[in-house]
UniProtKB/TrEMBL annotation, chains A, D:
GO biological process, alphabetically ordered: 'de novo' UMP biosynthetic process
Native organism: bacterium (Candidatus Ratteibacteria) CG15_BIG_FIL_POST_REV_8_21_14_020_41_12
Assigned protein family: Belongs to the PyrK family.
Entry keyword Methyltransferase: no
Alphabetical list of InterPro entries matching this protein: Cyt_c3_hydrogenase_gsu, Dihydroorotate_DH_ele_sf, Dihydroorotate_DH_Fe-S-bd, Dihydroorotate_DHASE_ETsu, FAD-bd_FR_type, FNR_nucleotide-bd, PyrK_electron_transfer, Riboflavin_synthase-like_b-brl
Annotated protein name in UniProt: Dihydroorotate dehydrogenase B (NAD(+)), electron transfer subunit
One GO MF term: flavin adenine dinucleotide binding
Binding positions for [2Fe-2S] cluster per the UniProt entry: C222, C227, C230, C242
Length: 255, 304, 304, 255
């Protein structure tokens, strides 16, 4: 974990004023980063917004890391107007990251909206993966598909308005998929997205006795485990999303 | 260039520079070890511990406000036993920086038990967090002169370690509370703790924090905190650790000029762990530019 | 679309909408006449007047802080005579909006003299600004239960006009002060006034304000002000004008949900005079979206 | 006086990250504006900076007004990054403005730094003017000269570092000029710039029995005369810079 001033290589608008992909040059963080970890960054050095904002590491290319983010408020709005060559104050990599599957498991990735960000990075470290499920409100919220090409796997898509793939929720896709996976191998699901989706994914996983890792979001203050601000209720008491997570075994969480 | 002297004394505790990491904002030291070199700061105050471990308040525990942080961590902590066994030894062994241990009890007896556990430790001092609900229904010890006097007096009898009292800003006259603490034998005053506050979610019609009430910290409160340091400086001659919204060198100077012998960094650490280094460098530049050289000369130098 | 009802009652004063222009922040009405249509707001509280004109404090009188305004205007005002002759008649004649007159005295006698001057006027009410230094050296009437009770009681005997008391936030327990004001006969409570604070200029080593101490207002204080409204709502059943940092529709809703019957706009007027209109429109949208339709139903609806 | 959302026509950098000229389309303010008045604008609609910032009206062209500003802090820094076609929330015109000279006077304009802004506008309304004196720290701080061309007058320049014109202060120029104006007509001086310069100008004017109008700066909160925040000490008690000023007869001020 370190605090660096990272140069912006690119801050690309993927969908006007909505989704952006930011590339930062930061060799030490790029070297240490593991899938599921995040960076905590200051969108500017003013007092507004006051706090840092956390973003999953979306991918790593040599000395650079990328994040994929959605403009949801003032902080991400300001971030989206930062320009190439400017410096950003970044702390990272933070959090535990995904526990990589052993080879004898079938891996399913389930992404909702910008939640796809961390699963892209995870996919770079996977040997194989029978299915990637991506859901969003409409086709414009379906991101990062190209990053999974390497896996040569089937990508299934759902949108709430039916504008792409199956009309409905990404958990509907999961619901359909699991019974079809007649396989002696254990199944492990990695899920990242809105809380509701994760909760539903956890339920489905439990029903099918699949192992399920979820990447949770909570309001992050320090990001390093010091302030206890990001507590999430688990069967072993409160845990810190930023340090004990953000990735948890779904069975541990009290949903 | 003439040598700049940042040394400052908090009674018997001498600090190599005036920067104190405030309680609750750097955990027990290990969490920030990669980002802040504890050897660089003047002193650290550990997260308030209680006799028994505390799980803390239900989430959400923090919301961001206009230039502020509203938190209801609820004193989540590992409890005295784990702290003494697993956390404190590392802190004392690895760093030369004075370690002040913050404690809170639900009864006077709990405070005294904690004191007896700490008395033989090689710590630089004990800070009494007196902002825990205790007196009557809604008030805390630190909001009442008599209760403050009583607790500090009782604790004073039981320890020879430097005794810090952390004052609550939620009072009519902080000078009076400071005076009670002084009379009862406090060695050092820390101020301010967080301001009692609440966040409301208009969409849901509910409080934003799981614990409903929270404490406000950060730049938003700085002007009020500064006023309180000023008030306390005028009523007592005890050393003061001033804090509340300090986020840069100028803020630190403002507290020192107003009367703080050392300054506490809380919320700003979350925003910029590198701030300790930045402020140390900034203070040096200021003292050299103003040809003052000794930080000590600045303390309470406010011209009115 | 169902009709939205923004009416709200402050005891005997009925407002067409909950927006009150707070004392000191829109002058005497004429300064903002091109920018704010006073007929659009629920009520106005005029700048606090004193018996004799007051020149106010030496400049600088205002500094900007993190999300706040620190001011030491020093109650600069034209005095009762000029106010009654030159300012009030225009306000009463030109607009249908209830006009509440804020007053402050240096002695109880001055308050009573002001009351007698106002008793025959066609005003909607009198607001007692009890945050002027008076009790002892440093404290103000509004920081002391007994003093508050005494003043409100004395004033109550002398007027049948609706009586508002503006509470100071610089207290340990604002609920207690509110209760005293209620017992003494106050009809409505306004809260909060500004927080006692100070600004220091590290470069000069002096206070930034000519008056040294000032009052902090604006978004920075909102979480504390909201907590105080909550506390007062729990201790009295008097109507409340809630204020402190309101700068948009959500802020207004937060105060109403917490227990304010009307909301005061202060600092935010300086930033955006058009805010009155924006909040009225915003409240209508909210009530219609939530299918509540009557603002009244929202008052104090906080779920805890 | 009105509050409008004015479109940015141009936000031109005159000296990198230092001086800018902003043109705003706002027909009603352009119509009402008088020299010496100012506009009070929100550099953005965030809570930082919290307050509006006041700027003299630098010139008026049909439906547009211009301001000339120096980046001195966060507010002007943010303003300098606002873009063409964006909207700015503007209140104006505010303040009393310069009292125009009657024809039988000799007019001298004395400008320090960005203080030249309002004098340019004033010069558009003058029939004649024997001298314009402009001072600044260095030649890069000498602005707006072209705007005085219409007057066909002599422009004298001083810089503190001697990089342009006479080395010294603009008040030195005034000091030299006044005794040379052997004229039966009364002299009126209009001055705008830093407080120190205005004070010195007032002194010199008094010595030469010239009428002198100064445009003062104070921290402006409401800008409309309501809050009493911008008080300045005068021989007739405190006055409000925003409403009773910003232009005052220099003899009225307690310097
Ligand atoms: C571990 C982690 C990884 C994340 N990864 C991504 C990602 O890869 N891509 C992406 O688009 N988003 C990600 N998020 C969410 C992202 O942090 C928020 O969208 C962002 O902070 C919103 O900031 P804002 O100022 O634009 O919005 P605000 O107006 O501040 O808030 C909008 C919403 O974001 C939440 N939020 C604000 N600040 C924080 C914070 N410090 N921590 C957590 N939530 C916050 C608020 O509670 C609110 O619900 C992640 C969050 C966490 C905790
Ligand atoms: C009537 C009037 C006309 C002005 N005209 C011009 C002009 O034409 N061109 C120009 O470049 N500047 C002008 N100024 C000054 C300009 O308003 C400040 O430079 C600007 O507000 C600084 O804002 P900031 O946030 O960048 O700096 P800050 O960091 O906020 O402050 C830098 C300095 O500017 C002062 N300042 C900040 N806010 C205000 C305010 N609201 N009112 C007055 N002073 C303030 C501060 O006291 C400080 O000394 C004028 C000021 C007044 C009062
Ligand atoms: C998340 C958080 C946790 C805190 N925990 C404690 C604590 O355990 N004990 C204590 O005395 N103060 C605690 N504080 C208060 C700080 O030590 C400090 O007094 C206060 O935040 C004001 O300083 P600041 O504005 O620099 O943060 C906490 C503050 C924050 C923000
Ligand atoms: C410049 C200024 C002048 C004020 N003058 C008065 C006053 O004369 N009387 C009074 O009761 N309150 C006065 N107030 C306090 C406001 O009415 C209000 O209570 C306070 O500012 C908090 O609200 P806000 O955060 O919306 O500004 C003044 C506030 C400001 C900023
Ligand atoms: S954000 Fe501080 S512990 Fe997680
Ligand atoms: S700034 Fe409010 S009166 Fe001038």
């Amino acid at each position: 974990m370190l605090q660096v001033k990272a140069r912006i290589i690119e801050n690309k608008e993927l969908l006007p004023e909505t989704y952006y992909r930011l590339s930062l040059k930061t060799p030490p963080i790029a070297r240490l980063a593991k899938p599921g970890q995040f960076v905590h960054l200051r969108v500017n050095e003013k007092i507004f917004p006051l706090l840092r904002r956390p973003f999953s590491i979306h991918s790593v290319h040599k000395e650079n890391i990328q994040i994929l983010y959605k403009v949801t408020g003032a902080g991400t709005g300001i971030l989206s107007r930062r320009k190439k060559d400017e410096l950003l104050d970044v702390i990272g990599p933070l959090g535990n990251g995904y526990r990589l599957p052993d080879k004898r498991t079938k891996v399913i990735l389930v992404a909702g909206g910008a939640g796809v960000a961390s699963l892209c990075f995870l996919s770079q470290r996977l040997a194989s993966c029978p299915a990637v499920l991506i859901g969003g409100r409409s086709k414009r919220d379906i991101l990062g598909r190209d990053k999974f090409k390497r896996l040569k796997t089937k990508i299934k898509i759902s949108t709430e308005d039916g504008s792409l793939g199956k009309k409905g929720l990404v958990t509907d896709l999961l619901q359909e998929l699991l019974p079809t996976l007649h396989s002696p191998l254990p199944t492990v699901i990695y899920a990242c997205g809105p809380m509701k989706m994760l909760k539903e994914t956890a339920k489905i996983a439990e029903r099918h006795r699949a192992l399920c890792y979820v990447s949770l979001e909570e309001f992050i203050v320090c990001g390093v485990g010091a302030c206890q601000g990001c507590a999430v209720r688990t069967k072993n008491g409160y845990k810190r999303v930023c340090k004990d997570g953000p990735v948890f075994d779904s069975k541990e969480i009290i949903w | 260039m003439k040598k700049i002297n940042l040394k400052t004394n908090l009674g018997r505790i001498s600090l190599k520079n005036p920067i104190v990491l405030a309680s609750g904002c750097f955990g027990y030291g290990d969490e920030y070890k990669d980002l802040i070199s504890l050897d660089d700061v003047g002193a650290v105050v550990t997260k308030t511990i209680t006799l028994k471990p505390k799980a803390g308040n239900p989430p959400p525990r923090v919301v961001e406000t206009a230039s502020g942080i509203l938190n209801s961590i609820g004193l989540a902590n590992v409890g005295a036993e784990v702290f003494l066994k697993e956390k404190l030894p590392g802190l004392l062994k690895k760093f030369s920086t004075p370690v002040i241990v913050s404690i809170a009890g639900e009864t006077r007896d709990e405070y005294l038990k904690l004191i007896s556990l700490l008395n033989r430790k090689k710590i630089a001092g004990i800070e009494l967090n007196i902002s825990c609900p205790n007196v009557g229904k809604d008030l805390t010890i630190g909001q009442d002169e008599v209760e403050t006097f009583g607790l500090v007096k009782a604790v004073r009898k039981k320890t020879n370690l430097p005794l810090l009292v952390k004052l609550s800003p939620n009072v009519t006259d902080i000078g009076k509370i400071a005076k009670s603490a002084e009379k009862a034998g406090a060695d050092i005053l820390s101020l301010v703790n967080t301001f009692s506050a609440i966040g409301i979610d208009a969409e849901t019609g509910r409080a934003k924090l799981g614990g409903v009430l929270g404490g406000l910290s950060g730049p938003a409160i700085k002007p009020i905190a500064l006023r309180m340091v000023w008030q306390v400086r005028k009523t007592t001659s005890l050393p003061i650790i001033g804090m509340g919204g300090i986020a840069n060198t100028s803020d630190a100077l403002e507290f020192i000029i107003t009367g703080a012998n050392a300054i506490g960094l809380g919320s700003a650490i979350f925003i910029n762990p590198d701030l300790c280094r930045e402020i140390i460098a900034g203070l040096k530049r200021y003292l050299s530019r103003k040809r003052i050289y000794n930080l000590d000369k600045l303390v309470g130098s406010l011209i009115v």
